[in-house]
Amino acid sequence: MRRHAAIVGMFVLPLAIVMNTGPASAARSVTPGIGLVSCTHMSGTISFNPPLTIGGMAPETTVFVLVATHCTGGTPNPTTVNSTSTITGAMSNCGDWVTASPPSFTDSYKPAGIDSSPTAGGVWTIGLKPRISLSIMGATTVGSYPSTNTAIQITTTEKWVKDVKRCRNRTRGLKSLRIKSGSITNL
Questions:
Q1: Which end of the chain, C or N, has fewer beta carbons within 10 A?
Q2: Is 155 helix (H, G, I), strand (E, B) or coil?
């Protein structure tokens, strides 16, 4: 009998160790957001690598990092929406970076536990006076907070005249734009 218990113990003990080697808690739950969300405050940056110059011919990488706060709506209600996008392939010319298709964003949400979502498409326009402003209308968001009419409005801290001067500087160029204000609606 002792021998039988020892043999069973040789298999049961290692099996128990293997079964308990996983994480102490189950994987965290991710919830898809439902409903429409609107955020009334926006900050962030739009950066250019290489810096934009007048007549720039190098392939351009433009990175959008948007942080939207003061959000209402949706279940669960996000307090912050972080949206990022990278566009590659345009020329590093000051006049060409907005002629590409609208950026496609990856949206993540706070508090943690809300599933991320992509936002893409729509029509984008640019305003130049007095400050540079960008508008994307009619974008589609799938996943959390789905919508076929997402709108993103961005106003930068820089005035176009100042940025043209930075573009003329071939050694430094225009490296980035800071976002002063904006909003996301129907996310």
A1: N
A2: strand
Q: pTM score > 0.90 for this model? A: no
Residue 98's nearest CA partner among 130, 134, 63, 47 is 134
**Integer Cα distance of 144 and 167 in angstroms:** 39
Residue 75: phi, psi to the nearest 5? -130, 120
Of 86, 82, 142, nearest to 112 (Cα)?
A: 82
DSSP-assigned letters across all residues of 58-88: SEEEEEEEEEEEEEEEEES--SEEEEEEEEE
Q: How many CB atoms lie within 10 A of CB 179?
A: 23
What 3-state class would DSSP assign to 19?
helix
